[in-house]
Known about the structure:
The protein is an all-alpha fold. It contains 12 helices and 2 strands, in the order ααααααααββαααα. The mean pLDDT is 82.
Amino acid sequence: xLLDPHFVLRICGESGLARATVHVYGILGLHEEAVxxxxxxxxxxxxxxxxxxxxxxxxxxxxxxxxxxxxxxxxDVQRITGLIRESQELSVRDVLPYMSDLMTIDxxxxxxxxxxxxxxxxxxxxxxxxxxxxxxxxxxxEDLKHAEERCVVISQDxxxxxxxxxxxxxxxYVFACRHCFHEACLRAxxxxxxxxxxxxxxxxxxxxxxxxxxAAAGALxxxxxxxxxxxxxxxxxxxxxxxxxxxxxxMIQ
Length: 253
C-alpha cells in the first residue's frame, strides 16, 4: 500500500530531512514550497531542479526569480548571469530589480547586448507584419473598388427568376451569377428567413423610403426622415441583396 505523501511530508519535517521534504513537495506539485526549502538548506542546484518542473511559464519565471533574489545577496555577478542563461526563462530586465546598486552595468554587457539584439529582431518582425497588413489592406481596397465598378449586362427580355415576367418592367436586382429578381419577388424569398432584428430593420427602412417618396410628391410637409434616400436604399440593398437566393447561402439553408 502506498504511503500518504502528506504523512511522509510531516515525518520528513519532524526529522529534519530537508532534501526529502523538497522531493515530497515536488511530488505534491507544491513547487514554490520545494524551492523555498531547498534555498533555506543552501542547495541551489536542488532549487533550480524544482524551478524547472512547473508546466506554467509564469510560475517557472517566479521560481527562478526567487533563486536570483537568493543569489543576489552574495553579490556574485557571475552567478546571476549564469542563472539567466541556465533558466532560459529570464532576461536582464527581469533580474535588474534584484541587483545591488553597487553592481555596474558592465557586468551584464553581454546579456544586455543579447537582449537588445532580441528586441531588434522583434521590432523587425513586427515591422514586417505591419507591412504585410498594409499590403493586404491595400489589396482589399482595390478589390472593393473593382467590385463597386463591376457591372452585369442583361438582355432586354431578361426574366425574373421567380415570376417569369420581364425584369426591367419594375425595380429589380441582378447578381454576379446573372440571376435576376424583381424587388417584390426577392423580398418574398428573403423576409421569411431574416432574423427578427433584421426583419424589423427592413420594415423601418421601407417606411422611411415611403416617407421620402411622399415628401418628393409634396404630400408630406414639415417632417424630414432621419436618413437620406440614398442611405436608405443602400441599407435596403444590403439586406435584400446580401446574396443570391438561388445559388447562395439562402439556398443551402
